[in-house]
């Protein structure tokens, strides 16, 4: 039996969640859980400032697209393609192209099992980039983007800076 892969499905803009719900209902009704494993609308945390108040909101990483992990065959293609709100698969013509493992990893899908070596409040030293050799305290961890928000002192003020995981070293004493 073929291995399940992630495919990108194009939807009408704003219908991503509706497509996800409709597709999940169809999968359950037709008992297709063995061939269509997961439907995902990738979200990313974003900071918005309204009336001077900062809050974290979740925005769609890929507006107009839904990701589906499935075993591609004529039946699964037909079910997904004929879901209300779906305009088609991403790929040349009618042949869907699966995402590579690296593309899936970069989007932060299936990383919840990954163990992080960072804890909020720890002090880190930046190893690369514009902030090299700067020390800061971890204020937030974003596993999906593989980044840390650290607080560094600049001109006598605490300033938040976003740094990639691989560009920092934890200072443990």
Describe the structure.
The protein is an alpha+beta fold and 173 residues long. The protein has two domains: 5-106, Alpha-Beta Plaits (2-Layer Sandwich), CATH 3.30.70; 123-170, SH3 type barrels. Helices cover 16% and strands 40% of the residues. Strand 9 and strand 10 form a beta hairpin. The longest helix has 14 residues, at 16-29.
Count of individual beta strands: 11
Strand order of the largest sheet: 10-9-8-7-11
Q: Write down the Rg.
A: 20 Å
Helix content: 10-25%
CATH class of the largest domain: Alpha Beta
* Named CATH architecture of the largest domain: 2-Layer Sandwich
Mean pLDDT: 85
CATH topology of the largest domain: Alpha-Beta Plaits
Supply the number of structural domains: 2
What is the name of the CATH superfamily of the largest domain? NusG, N-terminal domain
Please report the number of helical segments: 3
Q: Can you summarize the main beta sheet?
A: 5 strands, antiparallel
Residues in β-strands, percent: 35-45%
3D shape:
elongated
What's the N-to-C terminus distance?
51 Å
Q: Helices and strands: which structural class? A: alpha+beta
